[in-house]
Amino acid sequence: MAYNTINFNILNLKSDEKVLDVGCGLGRHSLMAYRDYPVDVLGVDLSIDDLRQAQERVTDIQETPCQGALLFIQSDAYKLPFSDESFDVVICSEVLEHVPSYQQLIDELVRVLKPGGRLSLSVPKFLPERICWLLSDEYPEFAGHVRIFKGSELKEAVLNQGLSLTNKHSAHALHSPYWWLRSLFFKQGESFLPTRKYKDLMDWQLLKGGQWTEKLEAVFNPLLGKSNVYYFEK
Question: pLDDT by residue (tens digit) across 6-30?
Fold first, then answer.
């Protein structure tokens, strides 16, 4: 669970549901949904290089028999090539901070979501993200972030579409110090000793940390979580 930003247990994925992962990048959420649940998953991204890498990673999870289907396609998230009300679940994680018009993208996500379907969005949390921007003038361009979401700004944008908020949490508190180090010592690069050592700690957390790091993150997530995660129902 430490690897994913979206909590699939909260989404309550059901057998044979159709899941759309918009801005899937290297496919971490698409791959985990496909591996762990009997659902059909479609990952969409604009970057063909990211999609190729995502496809290559499918072989890493096929040691366990998967009951659903998985497909990656290239598409503009503003103009998804799907009919209205096509998907039971729509995921869009760490994307809305990158796009010029997040409201336009939200409109498109809601369009393809079935009535009764679930939508999950995640964006950088205000305080940890603001610290990154203050520590480095280069950080926003390096990260590709064009905005910082304030307060209930994102939540209200979705509620205005007629959806209801069903859950909310923060995630990845242990990631925030890494990005502060990365921002503070931006010119030294990620190989700078303090940054590299903390990156090693995060890798250990991912591979071997288990319940200990999940409990630690649960304590610090409300204040220092790198991401805010929202769950809605249409």
Answer: 999 999 999 999 999 999 999 999 9
Burial category of 10 from C-beta neighbours within 10 Å (exposed 0-12, middle 13-18, buried 19 and up) = middle
Q: Are strands 69-74 and 87-93 parallel, antiparallel or unpaired?
A: unpaired
Q: Hey, what are 203's tokens?
A: 């890798």
- 113-124/227-233 β-pairing: antiparallel
User: How distant, in Å, are the alpha carbons of 58, 163, 221 from that of 117?
Assistant: 26, 10, 27
Helix (H) or strand (E) holding 90, with range, is strand 87-93
Residues ≥6 apart with Cβ < 8 Å to 190: 182, 196, 199
Side by side, which strands form the sheet with 113-124? Answer: 69-74, 40-45, 18-22, 87-93, 113-124, 227-233, 164-171
Paired strand residues for 169: 229
Indicate yes or no: pTM above 0.90: yes
